[in-house]
Amino acid sequence: EGRRLAKLANAPSRTRDGVEIKLLANAESATDVAMARARGADGVGLYRTEFLFLRHKGLPSEEEQFVAYRDLVMGMGGLPVTIRTLDLGADKADAAGIALRGEDNPALGVRGVRLSLRHPAVFTTQIRAILRAACYGPMRVLVPMITQPDELIAVRTLFKLARQELKQEGIDLPEKLPLGAMIEVPAAAITVRALLEHADFLAIGTNDLAQYVLAADRGNDALENVYNPLHPALLRLICHVISAGRRVGKSVSLCGEIGGDVNFTALLLALGLGEFSMHPSQILQVRDRLGELDRSELRRLAPQLIRAHTHEQVEALLATLDSALP
Ligand code: PEP
Ligand code: MG
Questions:
Q1: Which atom of ligand 1 is nearest to the CA of 256?
Q2: What element of type H or E holds 126?
Q3: What is the ipTM metric for this complex?
Q4: Average pLDDT per block of 10 residues along the chain, 326 residues long
Q5: Which of 102, 145, 255, 262 has the highest Cβ tally under 10 A?
Q6: What region holds the PEP-utilising enzyme C-terminal domain (predicted)?
Q7: Pocket of ligand 1 (CB under 6 A)
Q8: pTM recorded for the entire structure
């Protein structure tokens, strides 16, 4: 089995009916990057920069961040990388050197872009490091916890200001740097068309989207029966976001845990997903699974999937497919 999968490292990522799918890596460390390349990832779909802040136990300097981001881009050897701006909340910010008032509900608190926009000096240091690193290879910037367009507009403004500053300092700048929104807050998913007027691309974060849609803490084991990514409410939102992106020709990827879980590959193809981002250890399994699946057949199932009343119905629909596998 291991040897059979290893042979897939250089194979294209294609469904049985020949549709090319992008397989991207969620990568933080040099080890992840090496694994992503060894397994033939099409790029990095999610680089969680908070790891850098937490590992550091304090604020990393512009230079330290620049080196980390540059090494990431160069390590991917010309493949595109997606850097996510800081996604810390009150539960983790102190460790990173940002002093915050305690919050009763950190998951519903000053987290992600909300935190970054309240600490413009910290955020601008990160933005400068990103802009400088973007000269070393293709890069995109992803903003976490977006709820409404004004947040994305504010981030774009900070990027513009940082560009002017760097230009005055005579530092090289990338020509363009796509700015995208994580879709992980239900309001953002529902009103995604408004966000698409300001976002160059989208990445669906199903770990948080499921947590907020189902009102179930993603880390609470006692809620495993509630935190079910097959809930039709979540499927409808995912489908809505993918279709909205497709309508305006903007890229939509998905980078939650289910993106790398072969039990969800058929479902996500059915909902129209064309870019999966996952831990690099999952890439070969997902590529293998894609080869078993017929995308056009799955797409015909989408209306039934999103009209399902319960996750049991969704499971039953998916099971009819599995019995039809060769
Ligand atoms: C998500 O929320 O699905 C996601 C990919 O981001 P994180 O797990 O870092 O919150
Ligand atoms: Mg998230």
A1: 3
A2: helix 120-133
A3: 0.99
A4: 90 97 96 97 97 85 97 97 93 78 89 96 97 98 98 98 97 95 98 98 98 96 96 98 98 98 98 98 98 96 96 94 65
A5: 255
A6: 4-292
A7: 46, 48, 87, 184, 205-208, 255-256
A8: 0.97
